[in-house]
Amino acid sequence: MSAILDSPNTGLGSGAIPSTPVWRFSLDQYHAMIDCGILQSGDPVEFLDGVLVPKMTRNPPHRIALAHLRDLLQSMVGGDWHIESQEAITLEASEPEPDIAVVRGRVDDYPDRHPGPADIALVAEVSDSTLASDQTLKKRIYAQATIIEYWIVNLVERQIEVYSDPTGPVTQPEYRLRHVFTPGQSVPVKVGEVVIGFIAVSQILP
């Protein structure tokens, strides 16, 4: 059932929804809007915690960092995993489109659904103008869904933030561990709890 929210008390903490009243949808209602054409493929919105949130315009540094990260990860994962970029993943009350997702199996394994938390080893967001949201709203959504690892390619501070050990669906979802990697350091890439290689921060940042 839809509901008008008078306060941003969603269990996801600060940044979850605007402070002004909004109309909140269920995931089924969001899918119905797509099925009947109210929302079109390519519309610049994401469905986050029951709210349609506009996507920010991507600039050249974002595009470059995303391409570097996608190509590096693609060269590392084996046949049991594949890379999706800016494609939807389905969570309990959200359907974000992370810049990168490392997904189990092949694309053809998902003919009638988007990947869910159990299918995903890692998600990553490339952040400049969206940094505050990626460090709060997106992080809490991914932690609530028990996404094993979440990377923020922080173009503002020129570092990569790696979040792991999610709490899952608690009152204030969070990642218990945070590691920051800067130029000159390398980030371990974990897939299925196994480190499959390392990526130098300088290989990603434009």
Give a verbal description of the structure.
With 206 residues, the chain is an alpha+beta fold. It folds into 2 domains: 3-54, no CATH class; 60-204, tt1808, chain A (Alpha-Beta Complex). The protein is built from 4 helices and 12 strands. It has helices at 27-35, 60-76, 131-144, 201-204; strands at 3-5, 22-24, 45-48, 51-54, 81-84, 100-104, 120-127, 149-154, 159-166, 175-181, 186-191, 194-200. The strands form 4 sheets. The protein has a 6-stranded mixed β-sheet with strand order 5-6-7-8-9-10, sandwiched between helices. 34% of the residues are buried.
Lay out the secondary structure:
Blueprint: E1 3-5, E2 22-24, H1 27-35, E3 45-48, E4 51-54, H2 60-76, E5 81-84, E6 100-104, E7 120-127, H3 131-144, E8 149-154, E9 159-166, E10 175-181, E11 186-191, E12 194-200, H4 201-204
Parallel strand pairs: 7-8
Antiparallel strand pairs: 1-2, 3-4, 5-6, 6-7, 8-9, 9-10, 11-12
Tell me the structural class. Answer: alpha+beta
Strand order of the largest sheet: 5-6-7-8-9-10
Query: What proportion of the residues is helical, as a percent range?
Result: 10-25%
Secondary structure: number of strands: 12
Mean pLDDT: 88
Q: How much is the radius of gyration in Å?
A: 17 Å
What is the string of SSEs from the N terminus onward?
A: EEHEEHEEEHEEEEEH
Oligomer: single chain
Largest sheet: 6 strands, mixed
Distance between the termini: 44 Å
Instruction: Point out poorly predicted stretches.
Output: 1-16
Number of helices: 4
| CATH topology value of the largest domain | tt1808, chain A
What is the total number of structural domains? 2
Write the CATH architecture name of the largest domain: Alpha-Beta Complex
Beta-strand content bin: 25-35%
- The CATH top-level class label of the largest domain: Alpha Beta
Task: Give the overall form.
Answer: globular
Corresponding CATH superfamily of the largest domain: tt1808, chain A
